[in-house]
Amino acid sequence: MPAPGENLKVNPDRLWDSLMDMAKIGPGIAGGNNRQTLTDEDAEGRALFQSWCEAAGCTMGLDQMGNMFARREGTDPDALPVYMGSHLDTQPTGGKYDGVLGVLGGLEVLRSMNDLGIKTKHPIVLTNFTNEEGARYAPPMLSSGVMAGIHTQDWAYARVDAEGKTFGDELKRIGWRGEEEVGARKMHAFFELHIEQGPILEAEGKDIGVVTHGQGLSWTQVTVKGKDAHTGSTPMPMRRNAGLGMARILEKVEEIAWSHAPHAVGAAGHIEVYPNSRNVIPGEVIFTVDFRSPELSVIEDMEARLRVEGQKIADDMGLEVAFEKMGGFDPVAFDEGCVTALRNAAERLGYSHMDLISGAGHDACWMNRLTPTAMVMCPCVDGLSHNEAEEITKEWAMAGADVLLHAVVETAEIVG
Ligand code: HGY
Ligand code: MN
Ligand code: MN
Fold first, then answer.
1. What is the pLDDT of residues 136-173, one digit of tens each?
2. Which of 74, 289, 340, 414 has the fewest Cβ atoms surrounding its Cβ within 10 A?
3. Which domains does the chain have, with CATH numbers?
4. What is the pLDDT of residues 258-293, one digit of tens each?
5. In 117-217, alpha helices (H)
6. Cα Rg for the chain, rounded, in angstroms?
7. CA 148 to ligand 1 center in whole angstroms
């Protein structure tokens, strides 16, 4: 029986084949994926994932938010399970690895434990969280947020997509609403493998990121109202151009983020223009400002300045403006013990590694409120993510899954 550190390695070809097979479901238009949450493609990906987990000897649990839990038994059925996981849903123009590497890397851990005949005291549970991306249904990490008691299930069920379909209706429609109470599961620890989605690991030439912290996130929805009017016959002094108001506020967002360089970031990725006609001055614009920083005080300052300075811009232009907090979470410090298990695993396996602050949000950020939690990251090419050209190497995927395997087996207490 190999002790951790001997031949405890995953099968990279099998992992890569599973990643490529999953990528065939909900293909994008430029080599990535469009497998948005609660779509038929999401349902198809869930079914494939369940079949793989059952083939690996797991039993599948499903809660009322559609979170999936593949359980591998331990020698002590009463011991709290060690959880690992991430998400299978993607951005509309997403990559093949964001979230998916964490779910299928976890599946590879289970498959490798079977190959090596490893038994652990604690059961192990692999999770696929519903709607991590927040692209179709804001906010991100919605279902792990309900598990952590951040959102109520009713509030989550009532979230509406751009076509007016509610989360609850769509979850039922695709047939993935389980019976389990959300948040009833107790965990011994939680680990998430994820691609970095930034440029640091590749630039530093490191195989592994040991994530000690996650930066905080703030989403503010801004509605600017002016007056629809003809773009040709309306004299400039008479215009109340909501589109121009948005442009000036977004200039201010850029300035606010830069004022907290080098770590703070800010942008708007979601923009709705009404009536969005080529020869009509926009009467209303709705957009979401995404601010992030490792420091809570910086996030709070950026949110406050957006409101004060955005209001001044609107007043000066004779526009109306409203601000609505759409979601967010405070910066996260992960569990020292779990972080050390990951760092020691990378060391033992001979992978180059460095400590890292996660720039993106992850389900682990909410799991960290429920149980000792940490994340392991692998590089991605040019740091690119949330883009169909997102790419990693098989070697990077293997390194991440190997480290996850060691940390999970060690934390679950290998037996015999
Ligand atoms: O927004 C995020 O950071 C994550 O990708 N959902
Ligand atoms: Mn992700
Ligand atoms: Mn993402």
1. 999 999 999 999 999 999 999 999 999 999 999 999 99
2. 340
3. 12-214+332-415 (3.40.630.10), 216-329 (3.30.70.360)
4. 999 999 999 999 999 999 999 999 999 999 999 999
5. 142-147, 153-157, 167-173, 200-204
6. 22
7. 17
